[in-house]
Design goal:
The protein is of the alpha/beta class and 364 residues long. The chain folds into two domains: 192 residues, Quinone Oxidoreductase, Chain A, domain 1; 142 residues, NAD(P)-binding Rossmann-like Domain (Rossmann fold), CATH 3.40.50. It has eleven helices and 18 strands. Helix 4 packs parallel to helix 5 and helix 7 runs parallel beside helix 8. It is globular and about 65 Å long.
Length: 364
């Protein structure tokens, strides 16, 4: 029988988060119901709420989640009832042209649940990133569930579901940071700090954190930055010169833009070494335009990359990173700034916007 639970929705553009009853249908073939333990409050949820993704309201928000499989539909073999899982929004299909050319992190046809969760009046909900985990339970495709070590704290490893994986993956997967490399990270919120952590895991010798907020720079140092640049009061050339001064005059081997604005991307472009790599992981808005001399693109060589979900493969990366966390080698718990109730999500969005938290995590 369908189950009615409490969930947090965005009913219309800009409306406050609303707690209401939602209906979870019986899982169909390939679908499962997951009892949510924790779910992080991510910038992407705020973008959904403000209409920055699309206008398919009402949205069931939440996607950085961990929990346990409680009901499975027909034909489910990937998980079993009781499995502890981190939810992912890249459940690769294996059949699209990206998967067939051995680049599944660019999968064009990722799996989602075929049925819709609804309000009690039958109104269909659009789950954020195909997950919708600001709820006591949610319905997903079995492949959206990645089994990890159940000894892990759900609040910590659940963050691998989006932002922290995006930052770590920007360094490890997209940037291909190697031992001895120099890395600069522009923007030291949750994603930027995760990129610092990823660079440290890879063995980078120089890790430069760049931000306007001294508190964020101090936090980045705790995560492994070897140098910091306070960009408040510096123009683009000033930031570039500061990076060059810390890298023997050459620029960094890899520069990661975790902000996603034209000015920060230009900083990243010019602050890299000749033939270095730029990684864009911060998400720009549709109206942003970039202007840069094409001759500079040609003359400097190297790689200009964007990183979507840290170019991760959840089945490969989530269990590995969970084990590093349990070994004390990956400080996932340090990204959890506070644990909150489901009725505190709106306040958490305000804290996120002010930079007061890395991640608020809803505990259900």
């Amino acid at each position: 029988m369908p189950i009615t639970v409490q969930g947090a929705i965005a009913r219309s553009k800009g409306a406050p988060v609303e707690l209401t009853d939602i209906v979870i249908p019986d899982p169909g073939p390939g679908e499962v119901v997951v009892d949510i333990d924790t779910c992080g409050v991510c910038h992407t949820d705020f973008h959904y709420k403000e209409g920055g993704i699309n206008d398919d309201f009402p949205f069931l928000l939440g996607h950085e989640a961990a929990g346990r499989v409680s009901i499975i539909g027909d034909g489910v073999t990937h998980v079993a009832v009781g499995d502890f899982v981190v939810l992912n929004w890249r459940a690769v299909c294996g059949d699209c042209r990206a998967c067939k050319r051995a680049e599944p992190w660019y999968c064009f046809n990722t799996f989602n649940a075929g049925q819709k969760m609804t309000l009690v009046d039958g109104t269909e909900l659009s789950p954020a990133l195909g997950i919708g985990a600001f709820a006591e339970k949610t319905l997903v495709h079995e492949r959206q569930c990645t089994k990890v070590n159940p000894d892990a704290d759900p609040a910590a490893v659940g963050l691998l579901g989006c932002g922290i994986m995006a930052g770590i993956g920007a360094a490890l997967n997209t940037g291909n940071v190697s031992a001895g490399d120099s890395v600069a990270v522009i923007g030291c919120g949750g994603v930027g700090d995760a990129a610092v952590v990823g660079a440290k895991l890879a063995g980078a010798s120089t890790i430069i954190a760049i931000d306007r907020d001294a508190k964020k720079l101090a936090k980045a140092t705790e995560f492994g930055a070897t140098h910091t640049i306070d960009s408040a009061g510096l123009d683009e050339d000033g930031v570039v010169a500061a990076v060059q001064a810390l890298t023997g005059g050459f620029g960094a081997d890899v520069v990661i833009d975790a902000v996603g604005r034209p000015e920060t991307w230009r900083q990243a472009f010019y602050a890299r070494d000749l033939a270095g790599t730029v990684v864009l992981v911060g998400v720009p808005t549709p109206e942003m335009m970039l202007e840069i001399p094409l001759l500079d693109v040609f003359g400097r060589g190297g790689s200009l990359k964007s990183s979507w979900y840290g170019d991760c493969l959840p089945e490969r990366d989530f269990p590995m990173l969970t084990e590093l966390y349990l070994q004390g080698r990956l400080p996932l718990a340090d990204f959890v700034s506070e644990r909150i109730r489901i009725d505190e999500i709106e306040a958490a969005f305000a804290k996120m916007a002010s930079g007061d938290v890395l991640r608020s995590v809803v505990v259900l």
